[in-house]
């Protein structure tokens, strides 16, 4: 008896281990197949064994059916995530192919496993599940991350292109396929017009955003970006609307009964559905923005509000048979501007990341399911239909692109070049949307559904793999062909300077568009909407908070570090002595060019780079930090000039609004006054601190050492020298000079805070810190010479 | 154009925080995006020629006029006796030259080049590399061997570049 119990127990324990492994770590194929095949064996065995000792309580139990669906879904998602990690580890790969390729491959892999083990896949893809749960996150994410200003500037072109383009594509493909079907030789005679139209509408749903990452390198211009974005955004909505209308047609009448009235009603319905959805979305957006105004104290529910309201807008629109997709898009766009200002920083980050996560999950599931159904028995292959589908897709897309843009170019101020149009044409990559729509075709109305599914799959595979992989080189080829290859270093530097200059000038000009409507909207927005929808306290820009963080870090580090090696001084002197110009070999020039290209600061981009699959940490943040630190140092340098000036009155005159900016702003007020004198001092003033910190890099962590560099001067000065103006002795030796400079600055800052009447909490905090500074430094006042002697 | 001037005036007024009627440096520094522009300070300084601290509207427009897109008209048609319009290529180049040449001596010395380089390059580049790059830059452009780049040499080194497009802001048309 006991032996019999042991026998099932030991394989059960091995299997339990396997189960645990599979659940915890990477699900390799062998595991999964072993799992699935073993489960059946085990359950059979347990069924058998449980019949014998009816009263025993089994020590190990296994109930796979209970967890099957969520278990496998989780495994799929994990597998896809691991694949993505691998994909991004090999850095060249994301530039070669879009991430959709990867997801499809993973899906195909899972599909082959499931097929191989004859396992029944969980019913992930069901019409209601798709439309209710899988689709909204994807659309929400694309609506939320869309840059709104360029979108609205190009709204006319986008609507024209996306709307009409989708319609042209759908009807064009449908009609041409119908004509092909009429040819008896292909055996497609039973596909009537409506079915073809429906197929046309679902296959015209493109997903071009997936390829954006691939040709991002080529720095396509903003207009092109927006076109592709706008198309992706509106395209899904329009396809689904068309799809639903055509399905309604198919259900309602037989083909012969359709009258012109119905067609007109269909068109009217199209418009009503579209606009109604948008209207709903906007209303919900405003409501949620209004609510977030009051959530200061419970910031944990802010993401919840955002998501729930968007979802609610989707559902509400769907209830009335309006376009939920357009509703949720409009809601996201409306909500974003106001919610961003209202919610706390952490909520904002949470919302972003959570949105990305949800949409990734949805898309992964859809793609995996696509892979699963690729390798299966439900296919019908018909050479003619499939090939013609492919051909017509490309042809009609080309027609719609070139025709529509030819027309819209007449009205645009910045016309699209032929090159841009080629890129748009070639980026017509299909994605998960068309597959889902194809899969959800009701079998009753479409006896040849399998044919459609197969054709859709072929089109998707073709476009994603072949077009996706070749679009990168194509775009680069189109771009590179125009520019000359080798520029001298001179040119590169000057070009970059001019780009920065232009960006700066554009910022000075501010942003305005060609459209009066937008200006009026902005005014309306400022006067009414913002008052209602945004909280009372001042919004803090990210630059401001970044600056404050930097200041605090700097102060803390200065308080902490007292020691540093003074090798910097000697390097500094050496660096200044290498004045002789050398003849440089070409390799040196090459290396210089490489250094420049890698290290020159990027010009501020208007449109932030968008990646559908992850949130890229902004490299511009790091750059902004460095620039801000430098500016701060220069401001400190110039402070000494303005030290004796009556900045006190200046500061007092400024209102409290300045405090929301970093406190260097009042400094700049002083700098303003101080710059009047000794402007020739500027160049040499700028020179040294840069030498001091740029000589530092070889010593490891930059900022700490840079700050520590300033520490020595500050602490090594005896107090008496504080009041002496340092304008005498232009060059009393580099080391001495750096030593001399920054100490009084901290005094001026200190006094400057005291003169300010407002008790901003930041000011008081900084005051506390700076007094701590001073106290600390006073102790080290006597160690002036030992520190310098450490050279 | 008229509409453009109107918009610029609106912008001028929007930038002018205390309605003083002129802009000071502080007002321009309030523009957040300029703070993270590596050349931000220099750009602001270029608005205030000759050490003024107040910028009135004509001055504002004058500087921005450098960035107007160049008209595609036939240059021969223009009256040669009139001064060149501010957005001609030469004037655009002169404006850019001023960004380098802080001491206004008409030449970009090696030090000035080095400073600009420092502003524009990240912190990973060492000082020696920067110096050699600055040397090389001056070397390439310098023809009369005086170790500095005069305005003519500057112009010559950029003769292949499409300055008119690089330094034009479309909305200022």
UniProtKB/TrEMBL annotation, chain A:
Listed Basic and acidic residues bias regions: 770-782
Keyword Disulfide bond: no
Record's keyword terms, sorted: Antiport, Cell membrane, Ion transport, Membrane, Signal, Sodium, Sodium transport, Transmembrane, Transmembrane helix, Transport
Domain of life per record: Eukaryota
Region of interest (Disordered), residue spans: 663-683, 770-791
Signal peptide: 1-26
Domain Sodium/hydrogen exchanger regulatory region: 567-672
Record's subcellular location: Apical cell membrane
GO BP: gastric acid secretion; glandular epithelial cell development; regulation of intracellular pH; sodium ion import across plasma membrane; transepithelial ammonium transport
Gene Ontology terms, MF aspect: potassium:proton antiporter activity; sodium:proton antiporter activity
Residue ranges annotated for the Cation/H+ exchanger transmembrane domain, each copy included: 77-476
Protein's membrane topology: Multi-pass membrane protein
Membrane-spanning parts: 96-117, 129-146, 158-181, 193-215, 227-249, 270-291, 311-333, 353-375, 381-407, 423-445, 451-475
One GO CC term, this protein: apical plasma membrane
Pfam families named in the record: Na_H_Exchanger, NEXCaM_BD
Family per record: Belongs to the monovalent cation:proton antiporter 1 (CPA1) transporter (TC 2.A.36) family.
NCBIfam families cross-referenced by the UniProt entry: b_cpa1
Designated name of the protein: Sodium/hydrogen exchanger
Lineage per the UniProt record: Eukaryota, Metazoa, Chordata, Craniata, Vertebrata
UniProtKB/TrEMBL annotation, chain B:
InterPro entries on file: Calcineurin_B_homologous, EF-hand-dom_pair, EF_Hand_1_Ca_BS, EF_hand_dom
Record Gene3D superfamilies: EF-hand
Keywords: Calcium, Cell membrane, Cytoplasm, Lipoprotein, Membrane, Metal-binding, Myristate, Nucleus, Phosphoprotein, Protein transport, Repeat, Transport
Top-level taxonomy: Eukaryota, Metazoa, Chordata, Craniata, Vertebrata
Annotated family: Belongs to the calcineurin regulatory subunit family. CHP subfamily.
Domain EF-hand as annotated: residue spans: 88-123, 129-164
Organism: Chinchilla lanigera (Long-tailed chinchilla)
Annotated GO biological process: cellular response to calcium ion; positive regulation of calcineurin-NFAT signaling cascade; positive regulation of cell population proliferation; positive regulation of protein import into nucleus; positive regulation of transcription by RNA polymerase II; protein transport
Cell membrane among keywords: yes
Record localization: Cell membrane; Cytoplasm; Nucleus
Protein name: Calcineurin like EF-hand protein 2
Chief place where the protein resides: membrane
Cellular component GO terms held in the UniProt record: cytosol; nucleolus; nucleoplasm; plasma membrane
Protein's UniProt keywords contain Cell membrane: yes
The organism's place on the tree of life at top rank: Eukaryota
GO molecular function annotations of the record: calcium ion binding
